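Worked example

This section walks through a single chain of length 276. The input is the sequence exactly as stored; nothing has been trimmed or padded.
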Amino acid sequence: MSAFKNRPLVIATMHHKEKVIAPILEQHLQVQCFLPDGFNSDVYGTFSGEIERNNSPLNTAREKCLAAMKLTNCDLGIASEGSFGPHPSYLFIPANEEIIVLIDDKNKWEIYARIIHTKTNFASEEIKSESELSSFLNQVHFPSHGIILKSESEIYKGLHDEMKVRKLFRQMNIRTGKVRIETDMRAMHNPTRMESIQLACEELLKKINSLCPSCKTPGFVITRVETGLACSHCGMPSNQIKSKIYACLTCGFNQEVDLVTSNEKADPMFCNYCNP
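Given that input, the structure is written out below as tokens.
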């Protein structure tokens, strides 16, 4: 959109996220992406645990973005933050949550997007034998995806060479008797996570291109849904969604969009009375 055309945009990363972010934004927003020299995102937390993340994912992404903007004296920036763990709805499935935030200090806009992606190789376990090592490497798409070896006193990141991994494991195992092996979730060592970052960036672009009908500000997005479509059997309100509410976080304008026709009814399977 014209508000961003030909403006420099700093990408707050040291992990090569620009490889998927820059092409999307340069093509669709016509910005000029660049990286901040001397920027260290590890101070906001590391996946390997040496530095704990002390803030929420959204606030961490915001902090990184603002820091890179200040460092480069740029009024337009973008940053992302990933989290890994059990899926919030399907607890036995690992998931990758990616949050990406764009801050435009010139126009006083902040727009962010969030996705939860179940395609991830996220894993961590303690191993004591080379057979356990081999099993782990096979399940996490090594060597295209890097791994981390660590003990209480040592840590080796970004490992992609099997001979080196096995040598380090033997040395560490002799000294400690146990070694923790983890997937390296930094973007440049994890192509699967890079895909998630790209998806989050594409979702952000949708929000940027969704303008408020009232004030024309980007980021006119769904803020909640309304359930209660009448059951076709008993007529009572069901759990089925009947409309979505879009809202502008800048001017407060909101709009309800019906997802069903006026005479449409819900399947009884969504009814708490017919299907308790």
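What to look for: The chain has a mean pLDDT of 93.
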